[in-house]
Every structure is written in C-alpha cells, then in structure tokens.
Design a protein that fits this description.
This protein has 992 residues and is mainly beta. The protein is built from four helices and 79 strands. It has a 26-stranded mixed sheet that branches. It has a 20-stranded mixed sheet that branches. Strands 62-65-66-63-69 form a five-stranded mixed sheet. A hairpin with a 4-residue loop joins strand 70 and strand 71.
C-alpha cells in the first residue's frame, strides 16, 4: 500500500523563524501503514487542514487502533486547535525538525487558555455526550472529548513549536492522557504564550521550554497517577517553570534556569514531587514553592539536586518558612518534607530533612534515557524477508535478521513467532507504535505448551547494551511456559515504550476468550534475571495471565525504572527476589475487581539497596473486599521508600436524569496496610508518607502515652469479612453491617453478638431514629433504596421509605456521611481561565457541603432525616457520598458536627443546616481518615491507621493502638462511654 499524501490549502501569514534543533529522525522510515503530511510548510500558508486530515486518516486506520503520522521538515503555520485522537502518534522527519508556528495575534489565542494541539479521548464513562467538552479548543466544539483515563498510546515527537506575539492565552499542547503516551524531542519557543503544556500525563522526555509565562501548568492526571519528566529543561519563564498540583511529578535530569520560581505548587494543594539530578540556576525567589505543608499528601523529595545562584531552595507558602542554599553553588544531597516514619508499627509525623554541601562547580548532567541509534543505521525488516502480515510465521526470518544486522526497524504489523528470538549483545529492535507493531505468540503454540521450564518469546544476551523500543509483545493466554521478555542485558541496555499486550488497551484481535485459557497460568510478562539490568521506561504490563507483570531476580546490576504501569495480576504485580542496586521512579500498580482483588502491588524478597519514589499502589473503587497489604517484605533491608501513595479513589464524569457531574470517590477497600514485613513481623498503616527507610536494626517505636479515662482495647468479635455502617440505638445498643453477606448485627454487653437481619437487601449504612427504627441505606433499585425495620419484629416486616422533597425541619436528627472525598479537579478545567486561579480543595469541600439536597428520607417516627445525596450508576455499581462513607455522623440543625474530608486527610467541624447542608466548616485537625467520633467529655477520636485522640481544642493527646486498621468509630453503650472500633475483620471497644 502506498503512503497516503494529504495536501494543504494555501493561506498567507508570515512568521519569524527559529533556530533549527537536532533531529532524531533524520530519514523517513519506510512504513506502508503510516500517513505522510504534505503541507506547504513554508511558515506562511495555513497548514491546519493538512495536518488535521493526516491525523484523521491515521485515526481511521485498521480497526481504529490509531496509527503513525510523519511530518516532514518545514515550517507549518496553524490557526486553530489540531485534535489528536487516541493512539495516534506524530513524528517529525528530516535533517532538521519540523516547526509548527502560531502566527502573531492569531484569533482565539489572545486570552484565557487556548491550546494549539488537543489530545482527545473516547468517552470512557458511558456518557452519550462529553460531560465536560474541551474548553480550551479553538474554536470550541461541544462534541470534543478530552483525553482521559482511557486514552492510551498517543504521542508526538521530534517537532518544535513557536508562538508569535499577541497570543497571551496560547498553550502548545493539552496532554491529559493515560498510559503509554509521551511527548519527546521537542523545543517549545513560547514567546508571548501562556505555557508549553496545559494538563500533563504519563511521560515527557527531552522536551525544552523557552520563555512563556510557564513551561507547564498541570494538575491531577486523568487516571490520577504519576507524571514523569526526563532529560528536559526550562529557561526564561516569566512566572514559574512548572506550576502544578496533585500531578505526582517525578523528575530525572531536569534543568531549570533564569526564572523567578522553579516549581510552584498551587495554593491549598499538595503534591508528591520527587527530583533526582535536578539542576537549578539563577532562580530569584525559590527553587520550589510548597503549599499545604501540613498535609500528608504533601511529599516533597530531591536527591543530588544542584543549584547555582539560588539563594532560597524551598519556600513554604503558609508558614513563610524558607530553606536557604549554601553559598553561590551547592548540592542538595537530600531534601525531604512530609510524613516521616522512623520505624515500623508506628505512625509518622510531618518533618523536614535538609542536607546540603558547597560546590566549586556544577557537575556535568547525565541523561536518564539513552538516544536511539540514528535512523540512517536502521534496517527495515521487511527488506529482509520478514512479513508482519499476522499470518506468516516470522520466527526464522526475524532470527536471521537479528543475527546479521544490529539495528532493526519494525514497520506497523503483526509478527507471529513460534520459538524464542535470541538477541545479540548489541541488538536494537525499534518500532514506533506498540499496539500497531506487535510480536505475538499464537494460541496453543507447541513449543510453549504443557508443564515445563519457562521459555521466552524474546531473550537478550547476557550483558551487553541491547535496546528494545516501541514494540508490543503478546504472549497469548494458552501458552503456560511463556514469558514475554527475558532480559539479561547489562547496565547500558534499555527497554522503552514497550507494551505487554493483554488486559487494558489490547487490540481487539487479541482476545482472551480462548478455550483452555487459565488466568495466572503463565510466567511473568517481563523477567529480568541472571545479572540483567539497565533502563526501563514507559512500560505497561496489564496482562492478567502471568503470575506477575515484572519479575526481577538474581541480579546486582543497576536498574533504573521510570513510569512503570503494572496492573491486574491475580497474585503479584511487581516481584523482586535477590535484587540489589535498583531504583523505581513513579511505579504504579492497579488492582481490578475481577482480576486482582487478592494481589500484592509489590513483593520484595531477599533484596537490598532499593529505592521506590513516587510509588502508587491503587485498588479500584469498585473493589468489593479488603486486602492486607500493598507491599510485602521478606528478608530484605536497605530499602528506601520516598513518597508513597496507597489509595482507592478514582474519578468518573457520571450522568443521570439531572445531567452530568464530576464524581471523584474513595473506596472502602484500599490496601489495609502500606507495608507488611513478614520477617520483622511488623507493618506500616500509613497510606500516605514521604520517608521510610527499612534497615537493620530497625528502630523500635515507643508506645503512645496513656491517657486518663481511656481504657484498654477489648476485642468483642472477629472473623468478619468486612464490617462498617454502624449506628447506635437510643439505648446505646450497637448495630452494624456485614455487606458481603447482607447481615445486620447487634452487640450488647448482656448478649454479645447477634444477627438481627440477613434479608437480601444489600444494607450498606445504618441510622436509627428515636423510636429504635433501624434505617438501612442500600444500592438496590434504579437509584438507591432506604428501608427500615424494628429489630424486635419478624424479618418479613420491612418498610420501604420513598424519598420526599426536602423541607425545613427543627427538632430532628440529621444523618450525614462521616467521611467524604471531595476533589473534582481531574474532570473539568478547574483553572479559572481569566484569573488563572484554582479553587482550593477546602473551597470545593465547603461548596459541596453547603449545597442543599432536594430530597430526603424520613424515618417512620419523623425524628431522623437522611438527606438524599446525589447517586450515580456505573454498570452494576451505585455510588454516592452516603454509600461510600464508612458510616454516618448525626446532629440536629443548629448543632455542630465533626466529619472528615479524605481528599485532604483533614477533620472538620461545621454547622448543620436545613436540607442536609453543613456550613461554617473549620479545620479541626490535619489528620482525617476513615471516621471520626466525639466522646462525652469532648475528646475527638479519628481513625487513620490507628485511633488518634484529640482534645476539644484540636491538640493531639495520644493514639489508641488497635490490632487491626480501624475503619469506623462510634460512641455508644448505655452510658455513652464506650468507643466502638470497627475494623474490617474485628470489632473492638474502649472505655472512655
């Protein structure tokens, strides 16, 4: 098939030229599946239509799996937003990079935020129309869907950009993408523009920002995990090089110079920021401006940062505290701010670690990602007899090509093999699209069948500097002996932009519905062993048929891992056994409902000298069951954890009969612990922390001080699947729910534990009125269901309570969710496009809690009201603030109530009003976890790994240590002097 040529219209508009930069794709790869843009490219004609037409042609390719667009060298003027659909990759080609220019005073780009290139997405949420169309597109189109958590493989590389005068709102790219996407090898000459990138995602490498108000402005990524920036630079931004929040930024070999502020974290927000080998030069105000300094979500770390003419390295926005540099030039050996743990089996405290030394000169920077060989050295495998037609067995032809040529280019195609491809020590395999270019093993391949030792599809030679880039690997689902990539190459080797197909983002022709398939029945997708190491970047391993995604064993060769996405495996995501000298920057794991509800995110065995920075261990919010730990440690030491995030919140733009709304919610089932050390018989319950060192000997935590009036922890019952949703009757009797088994329990001192109902009505949370009627909230029905019963009556007597219009009430008790996750920033443009200000999380929380509810559920005796918080549906699941909470808190209108905002990890108190509103919210404590309860003497108890006890003035008094992670607290008993503590599997009590 001949390469398609798309012609451009001619429009005149002169633009100033910029200096040419080094091209990394100097020659045009021969790829019959690619699209070639043929615009005028003279800097005067408007090439918008030509570029868009080529992109659209690539997006409409075979099975709409995206494709490759080549843009030849030239100067291409654009006058409107270019839309890049999912999985389309655009590569500049030529001895010099092509330059895309926005001419002076281009209409639509003079104010607000206006993006030249918009990476778009398919609707990942099941909505009929985009709930939040891209507001920054020029011209605006209500049908344009922003890139989202389902936007994979999109990319742009080897292209430069230039913004002319009079374009104060111009931004080159809106890049709100998910896995296996990147921007690379680019210069952004921003001139009068606002920024180079607005809304970042996944990986950027070798990108350089010159001028502009900012280089990057960004917030939470669309899948709510990390963004990694490598081998890049910023120079001459007017306000800050990077302005961001909650993006979980990881950096290596990044230079920032000639700016007032290096990295600015937005007011009222946190971030997990990690920098390795970062350079700051000529920074007038601060290298990093830190906000929300008391938040556990604020996790800031630098190692081996260097500075020249940077008087202030760190500035803390709220307190005004600063950290001054040491002399004209200095090295930051270590800077950490955030929750710091000194030992296992203990909770952390917010601290700052600051270690510097003077330098006589700045060292030479070292690249994180080695460049690929020049395109002039690439040999096209089609010229060597390899077919790539998805039918012909290419094993012999590929092996012959590997044996005879060092650098091999794989055009788009599917390459079936039947035996191991063995690489030379210096082999380089290059593709440009890992879902359009796939090496795969057909189902039931004889060489991989039956019991036997592991057998690789691709195996590197031991040692050497082999490279594999831009290629997909698919092991099938009926090949029990297979491992996709067996890597034994040395410290100078690299695996980059490789997708192990299967699971999320897999081409539809590779189906998992094959007779004989066994989930968890294959070897790991990628196995690094026998002295293997090197650099591993932008890799995605979601195939649930391997017993792990990444397995590293038996090696001391250094390994550097950047932005690894490892998901959906039944037992293990990442396993290290006998490993030393590795570092992981921005590794992310995800556990899905059906595939991996029982999986560990990270299992470290018999290993040492490891670093994990900006580590996300995530379980989807639909998870129906508890899981013990994200990280399992066995016989390992000298492990450094920096910026750890163990979470189970996710975002959806959901719609109902009232329209669409952002809905970010937290699951009841994140990992119970961040870490369990089976050798030391210890655990870490903090879900968010900045610093923990595992070493020998480990310090032993001192027990918290005893507190008069607080008794010992007593276990009342155990063996539960998971319990929560507790409420206390007027006589002090405790009722609670075991949702998995549709059970409602009662506990009294006289009779102990009793089951009072097990009607199949999915009770989630309980509330009890003044007459002892138990109200149960259930996700059954088209919306939600509320029903009531008297425990003394037969089980068939159930009253269903319809919602009624809310009205003003005085002498009633209002039941409200005790913990709310309020953070909508990933769904719509939270940035005010005129003032360039973000509303803070506290402001969002206050606004949401002050919004009246239109309907309510009233108890049978009229003494209790349950406001109807808006509920959403996603498939078989229902979500609302009232269902997502571990339990309710209650108060009368005019009284104050305590509750937590889990997205800030804060405890608030506020004034209860009419129609379920809470106003006058005030921060009570910087700890705010799963639940909060107030004792008879005004003491406040907060469940956040352990039970934190505060005085009425907000001063922390002590901690109550519970054998399991506490998830709901409620005060009851006949004299209201018992603090009941619900854990997933056990029920406890403390006399207060």
């Amino acid at each position: 098939m001949k390469m398609k040529l798309i012609a451009a219209a001619l429009l005149a508009a002169p633009v100033m030229a910029s200096a040419a930069t080094t091209s990394v794709f100097t020659t045009l790869p021969n790829d019959p599946g690619a699209i070639l843009v043929k615009g005028v490219g003279d800097g005067r004609a408007d090439d918008s239509a030509a570029i868009q037409a080529a992109i659209d042609a690539a997006a409409a390719g075979e099975r709409a799996r995206g494709g490759i667009v080549f843009l030849p060298a030239g100067r291409y003027r654009v006058s409107r937003s270019i839309l890049i659909p999912p999985a389309v990759r655009i590569f500049g080609i030529g001895k010099t990079r092509p330059v895309i220019v926005l001419g002076a005073n281009t209409p639509g780009f003079d104010k607000g935020v206006a993006t030249m290139f918009v990476f778009t997405g398919n609707d990942a949420y099941g909505n009929k129309k985009p709930p939040f169309p891209v507001a920054t597109a020029v011209p605006f189109n209500p049908e344009t869907t922003d890139a989202n958590s389902g936007t994979f493989y999109s990319a742009m590389a080897n292209i430069d950009f230039e913004i002319g005068d009079g374009n104060a709102g111009a931004v080159v790219a809106r890049f709100h993408v998910a896995q296996h996407t990147f921007l690379s090898h680019m210069d952004f000459n921003l001139g009068s523009g606002l920024a180079g990138v607005y809304l970042a995602g996944n990986v950027m490498e070798d990108v350089h920002f010159h001028g502009g108000r900012y280089g990057i402005i960004t917030e939470k990524t669309s899948p709510a995990w990390q963004f990694t920036l490598l081998d890049s630079s910023f120079d001459g931004q007017r306000d800050a090089a990077i302005r961001e929040h909650e993006v979980d930024l990881a950096m290596a070999n990044v230079s920032i110079r000639n700016v007032p502020v290096g990295i600015e974290i937005d007011e009222g927000y946190s971030d997990s920021l990690w920098g390795k080998d970062v350079r700051f030069e000529n920074i007038s105000k601060a290298a990093v401006l830190i906000s929300a300094e008391k938040s556990v979500f604020t996790q800031i770390g630098f190692e081996n940062a260097v500075a020249s003419n940077v008087p202030t390295f760190a500035s803390f926005r709220e307190s005004g505290k600063t950290l001054a540099g040491e002399g004209a030039r200095y090295r930051v050996k270590a800077f950490n701010h955030g929750l710091t743990l000194d030992s296992l089996n203990a909770m952390g405290t917010i601290r700052t670690n600051w270690q510097t030394e003077k330098l006589s000169a700045l060292p030479t920077p070292k690249r994180a990602i080695a460049p690929l060989p020049a395109t002039t050295t690439w040999t096209n495998i089609h010229d060597l007899g390899v077919k790539g037609d998805g039918k012909t067995d290419d094993t012999a032809a590929l092996q012959k090509a590997i044996d005879s040529h060092r650098v091999l280019y794989f055009p788009t195609g599917q390459y079936p093999i039947s035996d191991t491809l063995r690489l030379r020590p210096d082999t380089v395999l290059v593709g440009l699209h890992p879902t359009r270019t796939v090496i795969y093993l057909p189902e039931n391949s004889p060489g991989y069948a039956g019991p036997g030792t592991p057998k690789a599809m691709i195996e590197s030679a031991k040692g050497g500097n082999a490279i594999m880039s831009g290629i997909g690997i698919y092991t099938g689902v009926t090949n029990p002996r297979v491992t996709g990539l067996l890597w034994k190459a040395g410290a100078s080797s690299m695996v980059n932009d490789v997708k192990f197909q299967g699971g999320g983002g897999t081409p539809r022709e590779f189906t998992e519905r094959v007779p004989g398939a066994r989930v968890d029945g294959q070897n790991p997708s990628m196995w690094v062993t026998d002295g293997g190491g090197g650099t591993f970047a932008n890799i995605w391993l979601p195939h649930p048929y391997g017993w792990a995604g990444l397995f590293v064993s038996n090696t001391k060769t250094p390994g550097h891992v950047y932005e690894l996405s490892n998901e959906h495996h039944v037992r293990n995501e990442i396993v290290l056994d006998g490993v030393e000298n590795w570092e992981f920057l921005a590794p992310q794991t995800e556990e899905e409902v059906r595939d991996s509800s029982d999986a560990n995110a990270l299992d470290i065995r018999n290993s040492r000298n490891l670093l994990f920075a900006n580590f996300h261990a995530y379980r989807v919010t639909r998870s129906p069951k508890p899981a013990l730990t994200a990280v399992r440690l066995q016989n390992s030491t000298d492990i450094r954890f920096r910026n750890v995030h163990v979470n189970a919140e996710s975002g959806y733009a959901m719609c109902d009969e009232n329209g669409c709304a952002p809905y970010l919610r937290a699951s009841k089932f994140p990992f119970e612990n961040a870490i369990v050390d089976v050798t030391r018989n210890a655990e870490v319950r903090e879900h968010e922390f900045a610093v923990l060192d595992i070493k020998d000997p480990m310090p032993v935590a001192a027990p918290p001080p005893s507190l008069p009036g607080v008794g010992a922890v007593e276990k009342l019952g155990g063996g539960f699947y998971s319990i929560s949703g507790a409420a206390v009757a007027p006589d002090g009797t405790l009722y609670f729910v075991e949702h998995r088994f549709n059970r409602i329990y009662r506990w009294t001192r006289e009779k102990g534990l009793e089951i009072v109902r097990d009607n199949p009505l999915d009770p989630v949370n309980l509330a009890i009125d003044a007459s002892g009627n138990v109200m149960a909230l259930s996700p059954q029905g088209p919306d939600v269901t509320v029903y009531s019963f008297k425990p003394s009556e037969p089980a068939d007597r159930v009253t269903f309570i319809p919602p009624t219009p809310a009205k003003a009430r005085t002498n009633v008790t209002v039941a409200l969710p005790g913990s709310i996750w309020k953070n909508d920033a990933e769904f719509k443009d939270q940035l005010d496009h005129q003032t360039y200000r973000y509303s803070t999380l506290a402001e969002q929380f206050a606004q949401g809690m002050a919004t009246p509810k239109a309907r309510e559920y009233v108890s049978p005796d009229g003494s209790l009201v349950l406001p109807a918080f808006r509920a959403f549906r996603q498939g078989d699941w229902r979500f609302s603030d009232t269902m997502d909470a571990m339990g309710f808190v209650t108060a009368k209108p005019g009284e104050r109530v305590f509750l937590t905002n889990a997205s800030e990890n804060r405890t608030y108190n506020g004034l209860v009003g009419q129609s379920g509103t809470i106003t006058d919210l005030k921060v009570f404590a910087e700890r705010g976890g799963e639940s909060v309860a107030v004792g008879p003497d005004g003491k406040v108890f907060v469940a956040n790994g352990q039970v934190f006890v505060y005085g009425a003035d907000g001063k922390e008094l002590t901690q109550i240590q519970v054998p399991e992670r506490p998830i709901q607290l409620i005060v009851g008993g006949k004299d209201r002097r018992t603090l009941y503590i619900l854990a997933h599997h056990g029920l406890y009590a403390v006399a207060i």
